[in-house]
Amino acid sequence: MGDTTVTTTEGREEAVPRAVTAPARPGLRQRLRTPRRPRLWFEILLIAVSYWTYSLIRNAVPEQRGQALRNADWLWRLEHQLGIAVEQSVNHAVNSVTWLIVGMNYYYATLHFVVTLGVLVWLFRSHPGRYAATRLVLFATTGVALLGYYLYPLAPPRLMNGGGFIDTVMVHETWGSMASGDLKNMSNQYAAMPSMHIGWSLWCGLTIFALASVPWARVLGLLYPTLTLVVIVATANHFWLDAVGGVLCLCFGYVVASAWYGRVPYALPRLPEPRGDEAGSGRRRAGRAARR
């Protein structure tokens, strides 16, 4: 007798190829919340348009001189009641050292922009996965500050009537403030609350402290907003409480970014997930390498 062929169904199920189901495409909100590698041209355009819009709105706020001076008087009285009204003493003491106050005038005029842009560039290059979320903190902080300028016009100490403060830029004839000298018509002089010098410098300092790997850089990150606080007071551009307003605006910015991304920006991955086209190219390259 010939051999009998026995056919069995055992194992046949495993031989049948399973249908491959494509993963569900994430929704628009999920895609927006997923960190992606920023595009240089878009970031340059976004920052330029955003700062132009910020300056336009800030300077379009009516210069309510009378109300701004009344608010300054009230704030100055409040600081006296709280026992923190030492701005005038700091202003006069630092003004007596010419080289120091001139240096602070230039500090006030330049580092506000230079350091902030420098930190943005550093984030873009070294922490692209955290860039968008950290940038959102800065944008939300600046956006809510515009409400403060509109709702609470405030004269800086140097413009108070009978306040006894020294306008250090005018006295030493240095270019140190867009709100003094020949440049005063380019900026709203009565938009002192909140202080974005503090909001932006503290954003820079916290970002550097949280993400820098070099200890001395982290220390400098904390010193930067501290020194900025001394500068804005010594030059009579802000009260202490203007700085508090800047800190509150920054807290709002962190709340917005954390709510949108589901965690603090610094806790996001340093490197972002690849975009769809980048991921597809990577898979194709890996497939070609496996076939070789």
TrEMBL record:
Entry keyword annotation includes Membrane: yes
Transmembrane is among the record's keywords: yes
Compartment(s) of residence: Membrane
Signal peptide: none
Domain of life: Bacteria
Domain Inositolphosphotransferase Aur1/Ipt1: 74-255
Sequence intervals crossing the membrane: 40-57, 106-124, 136-152, 190-212, 219-237, 243-262
InterPro entries registered for this protein in UniProt: Aur1/Ipt1 (IPR026841), IPC_Synthase-Related (IPR052185)
Main location: membrane
Lipid bilayer topology: Multi-pass membrane protein
Keywords, ordered alphabetically: Membrane, Transmembrane, Transmembrane helix
Record PANTHER family: PA-PHOSPHATASE RELATED-FAMILY PROTEIN DDB_G0268928, PTHR31310
Protein name: Inositolphosphotransferase Aur1/Ipt1 domain-containing protein
Source taxonomy: Bacteria, Bacillati, Actinomycetota, Actinomycetes, Kitasatosporales
